[in-house]
Structures are given as structure tokens and as C-alpha cells.
Hints:
By secondary structure, this protein is an alpha+beta fold. The chain contains 15 helices and 18 strands. α7 crosses α9. It is globular. The structure holds flavin-adenine dinucleotide (FAD). Flavin-adenine dinucleotide (FAD) binds next to β3, α5 and α11.
Amino acid sequence: MTATDLDLLVSALAEGQVIVDPGRMDGYRWDRAHDPGAGVPLAVVRAESTADVQAAVRFAAERGIPVVPRGAGSGLSGGSSAVDGCIVISTERMRGIEIDPLTRTAVVEPGLFNAEVKAAAAEHGLWYPPDPSSFEFCSIGGNIATNAGGLCCVKYGVTTDYVLGLTVVLADGTAIELGGPRLKDVLRLLPAQQPPATMVATFASLRDASRAILEMTRTMRPSMLEFMDRVAIEAVEDQTRMGLDRTAAAMLVIQSDEPRQYAAEEIERLAGCCRDHGATEVFSTDDPDEGAAFVAARRAAIPALEKVGPLLLEDVGVPLPQLADLVEGIEEIATRNDVVVSVIAHAGDGNTHPLIVTDPTDADLMARAERAYDEIMRLAVALGGTITGEHGVGRLKRPWLADYLGPDVHALNQRIKAALDPMGILNPGAAI
Ligand SMILES: Cc1cc2nc3c(=O)[nH]c(=O)nc-3n(C[C@H](O)[C@H](O)[C@H](O)COP(=O)(O)OP(=O)(O)OC[C@H]3O[C@@H](n4cnc5c(N)ncnc54)[C@H](O)[C@@H]3O)c2cc1C
């Protein structure tokens, strides 16, 4: 690879699209997992079209250079952290969207943020449901690549439930269109959501909260069912001072988006489940702004805990009947390893985010945190669950993947990857 070679890439693209300055490339090296092993790219290409992506991938394929696609870099598994000598292809400039209200579809370029897709759909009285907590700062392309989940996914499903078609650039630079009534990334939209009614319930024990969750999901379909433990409640309360109950072991934030009178009925039934399972306090409101404040509190949990210390972020899921064993098991792991672990969860689908608070200046604490991280994944798998509910394996969870999948499925995954990427240049080191 020579400087002249790199000039060929620069000249194939428009002015300002290729960054080679090390200082400016720093902003493209890490995602939110802050992978200490992130490499230094050869160049960053800020593509503006499919043709630009093709030009960059062709250039890389001809020289065997690794390519790392990058959306907004909000990932929590090191999936978009750079590898040494790679070309990062950033989609930040690919921000077009066209909405067809008649077919209720959106054709979206990958760099648009999830929140911007929602806002554009809302202008036509439509709704794009998937809502990762990071929806204000993650791209739709990143959401599709990770099959992002979120708060309303308990009722409305995850990202791929809304993808009808894609334009895909293959490892040799060929672009293909898959599915969809039209070209490019096509998203399915729904009629606008009803203003939701919200309920908040607190519990004195994790097991009571878990049992209430199981009872609610067994009999009803709330549009949101989120969980925060005491550590998360305290961290959010420290930041917001909104009067959350610091003594509660767990808090659930629950919504119903049924039409108004049915929503009131559903919330009353959900409240009944919580009371039957020992809720210490139940509060409900049909004021959308008041409800939104509780949802914002749940969304604020990760940023609030990041203020306590750098986090090792878990993303383990279990079948719902095992949720109580998982959250109690995590508490036991935290105590035994003498680390702070906070659990927040998209509880309605059994997807938890145990957040381990670390301190990189304390080697002993880091060793204990890493042991807890390992034990939590092993516990989830032993309970019939998964090492990643929604953030993906990326780089962080790769050491646990083979055990989780078993040798046959692991080998099958590798054969599929090799068929699509025979030279191994697409995001090497990250796993699907
Ligand atoms: C506070 C916080 C809360 C979060 N909450 C949630 C949540 O509730 N649910 C959830 O699922 N996730 C959540 N996340 C994780 C993250 O936001 C999601 O994984 C999101 O989908 C990543 O999108 P991104 O644009 O930032 O992608 P990036 O981080 O840039 O990339 C993620 C992966 O996708 C690949 N990629 C990106 N764009 C493309 C493309 N166009 N083509 C091919 N590959 C591509 C990258 O190579 C990488 O492997 C949260 C993160 C934070 C920081």
C-alpha cells in the first residue's frame, strides 16, 4: 500500500470525503464500548451514495484491506471499532429519506438517525416503532446491522420486523437489491401510535418484580415493560431529582397504547398484577408528558451510570420464566465479586442489561469486574438464554460465542461468513 495508492482512493471520491489525518480519524476509532484494542485506520471514507461505498469497497478488495462500516458509533459491543490499517466507511453523510404514505413505507439512507426516521414518519401521521434507548443518536443502518431492539419491542417487534428491502454492497464492491417494493433500504411504517397511558410500580424484592412481569406478559401485551434496579434508580435520581423511590429494590415502567378507554382498563389490570405480586407503590397517569418523564428516566439509566464510572455493559437475555433466577443470580455474582452491578431490562422480552461499574486505575477491581462479566454470561446460558439480546457479539463477546452456539452452529456461521466475504476483509474480528 503506497501513498500513490491512497491518492487513487481520494481521487475516486469527491473532495472532503476521504479523511487521512490521524487526529480527525480518532473520532472514528471507537464505539460506546470504548474497546481498548481499537486500531488505527488507514483512511475514513464519508460516503454520500451507494456508488461511493462501492468505490471504497472495490479499492479495499483489490488490495486486501479490511473495511469497517460505521453508523453513529453508539454500539455497545465494539462492532464498529477500527482495526489497524482498515478503511472505515462512515454513513454519516447518507441521510436521505422518502416516505410513501399510501404504501406506508420509507426509503431511508443508512446514516439517518432512528429519531429522524420517526419524526419524518410522524409528519405523515405514521410511526416507525423500533426504539432503542439510543434512538436520538443511533443510525438506522446500525439498527439494521445489529437488529436493534428497544422499549416498545415487547409489543411491536425488533428492527428486522420492519425491513422490507435493502441495497447491499458485497465484499467485492457489487451492489445488489434484496426484497422491498422499491430500491434502497425500505422500512415498513405503522399508523401513528395512540398517546400511551403509563404506570410505574415499585417493589421491595427483585423476585416480586420478576413474578409480576411474568404474570403481566402471560396475560397481556403492554406496549412497554421496562425494569430498573435500585442502583439504576439511585443513579438516575442523582441526575434528575425527579423523586424516584431510592428504597425500592426494583421499579417497572409500563405503558399501554390501546385506545383511551381500553388503555385505562389495561393499565388497571396491569396494576392489579403488580399489587398481587407485592408492589409497594403503583402510580398511573394518562398524561403523555408525565408518562414520557418516567420513560426518559429509564432511557437515562446508562448515561447516569456512566457518570459513576466506566461500564462493562452486558446484554444477556433469558426465557421470561427464568428472569427472577437471572436477576437474583446477578445480585449474587455482584456480591461475591465485590463489584457494583446495576440491572436495567427490556423486561417484557427477558432482555437485561447488567451494567458493571469499573475503574481502569484499579487493577484488582478490573479483574473482579471481568470475572463477574464472564459469570453473568455463563449464568444466562445455563438458564437457557443468550449472551446478547440486542447489542450483538461485536468484538467484546467473541470469546463466549463458540461455547454459546456450540461447535456445529459456530462452524455453520463461519461457512456463511466465508461465502459472503471470502477474503475476510469485512469487519474482521467482529462477529455477527
Ligand atoms: C445509552 C445507550 C442505550 C442503548 N440502548 C439500546 C437499546 O435499547 N437497544 C439496542 O438494540 N441497542 C441499544 N444501544 C446500542 C446501539 O445504540 C445500537 O446497537 C445501535 O443499533 C447502533 O447503531 P449505530 O448507528 O450507532 O451503529 P454503530 O455503533 O456505528 O455500528 C454498529 C454495528 O453495525 C455495523 N454497521 C453500522 N452501519 C452499517 C451499515 N450501514 N451497513 C453495514 N453495517 C453497519 C457496524 O460495523 C457495527 O458492527 C444503546 C447504546 C447506548 C449508548
